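Ticket #4471: complex job returned nothing on first submit. Input attached below:
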Amino acid sequence: MQLIDCPWCGCREEIEFSYGGQAHIPYPDNPAELNDTQWAHYVFFRSNPKGVCAERWVHSAGCRRWFNALRDTCTYHFIETYRIGESPSFTSASLFPVTESQVSVPTEAGDRKTQ
Amino acid sequence: MTQQYRTPTGGHITRDTALSFEFEGTLIEGYAGDTLASALLSNGVHHVTTSIKFGRPRGIAAAGSEDPNGLIQITTPIPEPMQLATTVELAPGLSAHGIPGQGTLPTEPDPARYDTAHLHVDLLVIGAGPAGLNAALEAARAGARVALVDEQPLPGGYLLSTPCMIGGANSTEWIAQTAAELAARAVIHLQRTTVFGLYDDGLALAVERRTDHRGSDAAPDSLRQRIWRIRAIRTIVATGAHERPIVFADNDRPGILLAGSARTFLNRFGVRVGDSVTVFTTNDSAYSSAFDLHDAGVHVGAIIDSRLVIGTEWIEGAKIRGIPLHSGSVVTGTSGDNRLTSITLRRFNGTSFGTAESYEADTLLVSGGWNPAVHLYSQAGGMLRYDERLGAFVPHREVDAADVAASRSGTTFVPHREVDALRRPLPRSHEKFVPHTGVDGLAIAGSAAGKFGLREALDSSHKAVREALVDLRLAHSPSRPPEVEEDRDHTPGAVLWFVPSDDPHKLTTHFVDMQRDATVADIAHAISAGLRSVEHVKRYTTIGTAHDQGKTSGTVASGIVAEISGEKMSSLGTTRFRPPYTPVAFAALAGRARGHLFDPVRVTAIHDWHIAHGAEFEDVGQWKRPRYYPRNGEDMHAAVKRETIAARNAVGILDGSTLGKIDVQGPDAAEFLDRIYTNIMSTLKIGSIRYGVMCGVDGMVIDDGTVLRTEEDRFLVYTTTGGAARVLDWLEEWLQTEWPELRVYLSSATEHLVTFPVVGPRSRAVIGELFPDLDASNEAFPFMTWRDTKLANIPVRIARVSFSGELAYEVSVLSWYGLELWTRLIETGAKHGITPYGTEAMHVLRAEKGYPIVGQDTDGTVTPQDLGMSWVVSKKKLDFIGKRSFDRAANRDDTRRQLVGLLPDDPTKLIPEGSQLVTIESLDHATVPITMDGFVTSSYDSHALGSTFALALLVGGSTRLGEKINAVVNGELLPATITNHVLFDQEGVRRDG
Ligand SMILES: [Zn+2]
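Support reply: We reran it on our side without changes. The output follows.
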């Protein structure tokens, strides 16, 4: 049972949180303009890396806020957590996969429409 | 019996307090402070049980939880199977018997209580031996909040077995002084408490045995065991070491035990393990046992040492005592039926044997060296390496160093004290990511770190605690560990896993894991079968899988695998250590979460009314919902029939309070719902209601329900009962991560409001009578609208929605007024025959109308179109969640499964839910696999239809109406006709009354 550092509440027991899949996969600007393959990449394709991975988590039994986390998939350990729209201090190209589905690439680490 | 093997003085037992206990039906006496094992041995009883596979007699083979043999079943005072004689404290009323590997669960209920406690500390010290006591003391003196946890009844660990001078006092005094100072410094000191698991971020789980040592003096409903959940910023593992046996022919007879354990029995319990003792060792440590026993008056017949080079002090010690010493020799066999009577030894140079000599002996002490108890360290992710000198796995030093560095930089380590103060625990940015190597804030000290000498153990404890204090940012005065004698300069021990007296495949009495009756021959067969990994060999032979989890057999098994297969021990490694360290009762883990506290139970505001009116309940998620209300001994079928007839022909009432409700507010609430739902919500007028479906981005239905626009900027969203929490998380995710610019605020209102659908042709009369201010006519109050009114002064909201196809009014009030509203509706409706109905009747009514239940008639692969609800998918909106997926080729495929109705040819036959649907006419001679065309999702007996019926998801279903299909039921085919999923009142004429 890890402690997860909610960016709003601080460290809390893992059981208070829910996992929400890979982070930094923004909803496409114009889904209608994407072909089936491009859309399928947005809906279904995830990078599933061995090592550091950016993920969405929500503090379900706490403040109910969604946030992003970097986690090492080899050890499960959280490297850091950061608020939606913020950038992690540890960066790596692999955290922000640019797939062909992504007509608009995020200009920064945050989610698309944050600013 | 008379405790003829008890020494006249010495040991940590109370000779003034004799305790009688029963073993195998015989009344025996021991003393307070004994374990069951020491009490048995004090009466000369070695033979405790027989082995699981071969029925061989087995005795006490060790003094602690590492004993692979002495399994017993306790019959009184608290029945419990699978206990170890060496860990059961002698207590009033104890009765036990040996068990061959398997016990029997007691049949009577357990009246004892179990609970859980939480503890947050700066430093957790596991093990109260010399290293642990010193670490706790030094940390407490520096001002740290310390917990010290130890599995034994008494602190002291190794010192209890090995009296010596420490810190200028004898060890017993030093233990007492140290414990007193720890208490004075408010250290949380738990004895009889086993840390059985070490997890992430400094979490330790421990079980405290609070009352078993009081036996029948403890009240039956005592708080018997407690699980401690301990969060520590730093943890020092000082769990000691386990002695390792040597495997030889017939090494399992009662009377053969570990040498250090014999010393424990002597010095801690005042028990001589036999009259005539022989020692078989590969290292120095067993000499101390031999000498202690000799000095206590036991005849030590011989010391057999596999080494040729032995330290002069040991040679001298043996000579002074007149103990013959056989160097370069090994034990090659034993005899004796229920107790050892003699042993055979031979000279052995590693390849060839000398001639055999036999000695009489009733006890054989064995020492193959010591294994650091690295279990907890390894559980927490600590890496181990093989130490050739010790013949054991020890913590990987280089990794330790890296870890300490990593935790200092604050990357993998969380200071809980700051969490307590509700401050941000770590700087949010750091220079660079240090790869995590597995051990957070964890140090290992004493013999658990392979430091077997007392002085080096104390030094390692001192070093570990100083590092911990640096991490804790605690100032500490220069301190030193207590003074002890110089460690003796040990001659290296020999590593001897087994005495290789024959082809390994033939060594069928060379027991490696005595509890599993697994031998060297079993390992040889595993290797011959091609297995090389120790993990595979473990599973093939079952070595290390018993209650003791291979505490004595694990490393030996690895060594034997290495030797037979020619692999290097360092590359072979050992099996992974997993929690629990020692067995933990499920009752303790469950704690108070038993019975009705197992999972929270949610009830509606009128739950007591349901109980008073005889409702049978059904669990829906955590909710208790009335399933039906039997009258006059009705069974469910009869009750449901009566309830559905009332709703269709007169009036029924349902407690629909468990439906999820989310209050959606804000200037952008309408825009938000437009993006979430497949249909348009922004055009909804205040006072109106719309049914909506939510899909995932993949276009699959995830929830449905009605939406009320209550104000320009405010909506009340109803979700399914089971989906309430999930939908709220889903809405928040989109709001917070994708559309933070939308000014929308969500709150759960599920428990604020109760909702009672009043259903049936006479519902208008009931509503009209109870709410005279309200015009309940269809013109003034049309379908899919809501109106506010009052009941006395209670604000009431009534909605014209229908989940049955009947004229219906869903009446809502704040939960406080729920019971009052319900009883008034029942009273007013009485003359109209108002009938409360449960979820079962609700299901029949909704299924007759083809209304799907998300999660029952859908499974995450079903679109709104599949449910025959293309009308709920907006063509006008540019986008909403799921829209793009509806255009995918896979979503437009004609062979998708679609919702249909089924009418069995035999209207009395109910097709079980989940039944597969096939087109073949006969199951005889059918070619397998048979093509499955779909499956039944809902199935009921309908009075309105005069038949059973079902809903099903069927390949291309919407184009197959009128066709026949067969359901496979218990190996037979049940024919049915495919119909539209709306089976009753397809024109919808009933909903307006
Ligand atoms: Zn939070």
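Chain B touches chain A at residues 199-201, 203, 231, 381, 411-412, 414, 416, 419, 422-426, 428-430, 432-433, 435-436, 438, 697-698, 725, 728-729, 732-733, 736-741, 878-879, 883-885, 887-889 (CB under 8 Å). Closing as resolved unless it happens again.
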